[in-house]
Amino acid sequence: MATAPSPVPPQGLRPAPGLDGVDHLAYVTWRPRATYEFYTQVLGMPLVHAITATGWVTDDYPDFVHFFFDMGRGNRIAFFYYFDLPAEAPPSDLMHRSRHLAFHVDTEEDLLAWRERLKSHGVRVTTPLAHELIESIYFDDPNGLQLEITRPLREMSGIDARDAELTLRALIDVTASPHPSVQAMWQRKAELIRKSIEVPAP
Length: 202
Fold this sequence. Notes:
- Helices cover about 30% and strands about 25% of the residues.
- The chain is α+β, with helices and mostly antiparallel strands.
């Protein structure tokens, strides 16, 4: 049986560097407890990583927690919880940047090759941005959908999952209070860590 010929790029256009599937899809949540329970208990997806940050990218960027569930085969679904963001906030640049699709590549060389290709096509693309476990570039498609290409800085491990569990427990606790903040969440997380390592007196 004959195999289909490989697609030939237009004359003068080099073949695109390879992509290795979806790294993650990202959305915004105003309900961290319900989101955590749904994805871990209903869908059975392990919580594998969480990032918390203040002053991200710009000084007026709100404090947030960005947490990831494993969908299998290295694919993840992720959510942002923003402190002080009104529930169901209207469309904004923040919401645009939060809802995105990230593709996976393996190496720094792959990431930089993609950046050069995008630039050669006139696409506005960010410089590589390292954040905890990954390094990424960001750009928009013609429909205004933000896309990301990301490469791992190191493999996710059990310690990342344990840290994410503590972060989400702390987030869920503080969002039940009238004035949640990232500082209150970090304080609650420290309390949970302290409790987990305390050894009862003999």
